[in-house]
Design a protein that fits this description.
The chain has 374 residues and is α+β, with helices and mostly antiparallel strands. The chain has five helices and 22 strands. A hairpin with a 2-residue loop joins strand 1 and strand 2.
């Protein structure tokens, strides 16, 4: 008679397998441009359309800020319009499309003074798609921002298509009679196995030796600043993250990431060894053939998240950004955003997102209690 395996043991084995199962490599979505609008979606199906400065009509002269239209995927269907306007000291606004008022409301304090949701958002979105020019004014008629609507219909139709809403009752532009059936999308869950906190890092002399033998040696000029952070301890092994300065420009500083490790004590002859950090997705401004480079790198020590923020120009209205979680062996992409057009959009479109959790917590989440034993 074959042995009987309890439900708890079987589920625990399944959970452990799930926690260690390989996750497909990240594939951030594309960002499209339709005349004066940019649009893109992430791997979960959430999409965002952003207005751009109309270069043909004077550029930034009448520009107070962009308008963002975002819509979530699935049945929750959260549609939101946000408008960034310069602080004009007014308490309210009027939104006017081709001379017709389509929405009014208060100006709030915060990053986005104007936010429209619910049925009003649907009404305003459809007016935007049909219009040519949008003006946002204060109660006294003062201009807060002027936005070209050229390309807005194509951008919103793109969202309908990407979310499989086209020709359904839920579509914004490509409306039809079909029943909307949301696609099932799963946001990746990354299992992390980070080591216990520790403060041990390599000595300055060891970093100097690392630099002298690195690919960055000939790209370091002017004032350079290398950064070293502890990565934790496991038994008598210690690790550290080295962000090596690897060239700079007017507003972008490149860094190469290295992982240092030591076992034992320097007093007993132990020394640090270094290897280039590995990434499951190449940071966007890196050469595919060379060692990954991060731009304006930031390390969040508490969560062990490494971020890159590469600006296309100084005011930061274009570029690309990625955030990576350290899983214990390599850096894994948890968020990516980009904006290819340098035309006034200061919040970039999210193209990838992933969740993360400690490996043991992920296993415990799907492991039943003792009450489930058969």
């Amino acid at each position: 008679m074959p042995p009987i395996i309890s439900t708890m043991v079987f589920m625990a084995m399944t959970a452990a397998t799930t926690a260690n199962a390989p996750i497909p490599l990240p594939a951030p979505g594309e960002v499209q441009v339709f005349r004066d609008w940019s649009v893109g979606c992430d791997n979960g199906g959430n999409c965002q359309a952003v207005s751009l400065v109309d270069d043909a009509s004077g550029g930034f002269s009448d520009w107070g800020g962009p308008i963002y239209i975002s819509r979530t995927a699935g049945r929750d269907d959260i549609l939101k319009i946000r408008v960034l306007v310069q602080d004009a000291g007014v308490s309210g606004y009027q939104m006017i499309v081709d001379g017709r008022v389509v929405d009014t409301g208060p100006i709030s304090q915060g990053e986005y003074p104007i936010e429209i949701t619910g049925e009003n958002a649907k009404k305003v979105t459809r007016a935007i798609a049909r219009g040519r020019k949008l003006n946002v004014t204060g109660p006294d008629g003062s201009s807060l921002t002027q936005i070209s609507l050229a390309g807005s219909m194509a951008a919103l139709r793109y969202i309908d298509q990407q979310q499989k809403r086209a020709y359904t009752r839920t579509a914004l532009i490509a409306k039809g009679r079909r029943t909307y059936r949301p696609q099932k999308t799963e946001i990746p869950m990354i299992a992390t196995n980070q080591w216990a906190p520790a403060q041990r890092i390599p000595a300055t002399s060891e970093i100097v030796d690392l630099v002298e033998n690195s690919v960055c040696k000939d790209d370091r000029f002017g004032v350079v600043e290398d950064q070293i952070f502890p990565l934790g301890q496991k038994d008598d092994r210690y690790r550290a993250l080295v962000l090596m300065s690897c060239g700079s420009g007017a507003y972008n500083l490149s860094s190469a990431a290295y992982i240092g490790e030591i076992k034992g004590s320097e007093k007993d002859g132990a020394s640090w060894t270094f290897r280039p950090a590995t990434f499951d997705f190449q940071p966007s401004w890196s050469d595919e053939e060379s060692q990954p480079l991060l731009v304006n790198a930031h390390w969040e020590e508490n969560r062990q998240i490494l971020s890159s923020f590469a600006k296309g120009r100084g005011i930061g209205d274009c570029g690309s950004a990625e955030s990576f979680i350290w899983d214990g062996e390599q850096f894994r992409l948890i968020e990516a955003s980009s904006m290819h057009e340098c035309r006034g959009a200061y919040e970039w479109i999210t193209t990838w997102r992933a969740n993360y959790r400690k490996a043991e917590s992920l296993a415990q989440q799907t492991t039943p209690s003792d009450d489930a034993i058969e």
